[in-house]
Amino acid sequence: MNTTDAWLHAAAIDPSVGALRPDYRALLIVAEGLRPGPGDAFSEELLAEAEAKACDPEQHPHVAAWREAFRAFGAKPKRTRPSVDALLRRAPDGLPRVDRLTDIYNAVSVAHVVPLGGEDLDHYAGPLRLTRAEGTEPFELMSGGAPVTENPRPGEVVWRDERGVTCRRWNWRQCVRTRLTSRTTRAVFLLDALGPMDDPALEAAGRALTDALVASSPGAVTTSRLLRAAS
After folding, report:
1. Which of 195, 231, 187, 229 has its CA nearest to residue 212?
2. Which of 228, 220, 209 lies closest to 112 in space, CA to CA?
3. How far apart are CA 62 and CA 84, in angstroms?
4. Can you tell me whether residue 104 is helix, strand or coil?
5. How distant is the alpha carbon of residue 14 from its chain centre?
6. Interacting residues of 139 by C-beta distance below 8 A, sequence separation 6+
7. Which of 3, 9, 70, 101 could bridge to 75 as Cys pair (CB 3.0-4.6 Å)?
8. What is the DSSP letter of 176?
9. pLDDT of 3-45, one tens digit each?
10. Which whole-number Å values give the CA distances from 47 to 51, 73, 104, 146, in the listed order?
11. Residue 212 bridge partners (DSSP)
12. Collapsed DSSP state (helix, strand, coil) of residue 188
């Protein structure tokens, strides 16, 4: 088993999350040999297509399911929205333009109505795990141009590694340490699905992402693993 396969094999969903939402699945996609950099014609085309086809988040069952999931662990989805809900609300006025890798995954997120995040694999400390927070775990971010460390609320659903929280409130906000940068060549992408999004739809979103990553970074190699909360 190579290093990438071993890292994916070690990723896990804590039973406490399965008890909260047994219908939850995470599709993890590791991409290596990526070409980072600013947005380009390829990423711009994907974003424009996603903006043109973006659905109304108030009418989509997958968005509704994510709001229910946020409420189940005490979050207020109108204040801290699931990531795909926040993106869909921005689509009519234009999705954010960040960098080519982030723009690609944001476009896939909107087009397939699925929460989707990307993080720099080289900045992870140990395997990835989805769990409910104790409330003492460090979460690193920037505030006013300065580094700040916060803690999640007890019971909050978080992604974490051995150093701390990598994403708060399931898919709401990523930490600074593992975010994609202009130097990222190895990344892990996380696609979050609940009941209204079945496995074929989740797999289709994963294919759209891997196809776009490989097309924009010729020679890139992807590996994936599907995690199920109920297993």
Report:
1. 187
2. 209
3. 9
4. helix
5. 17
6. 149, 150, 151, 152, 158, 164, 165, 168, 175
7. 70
8. S
9. 999 999 999 999 999 999 999 999 999 999 999 999 999 999 9
10. 6, 32, 7, 31
11. none
12. strand
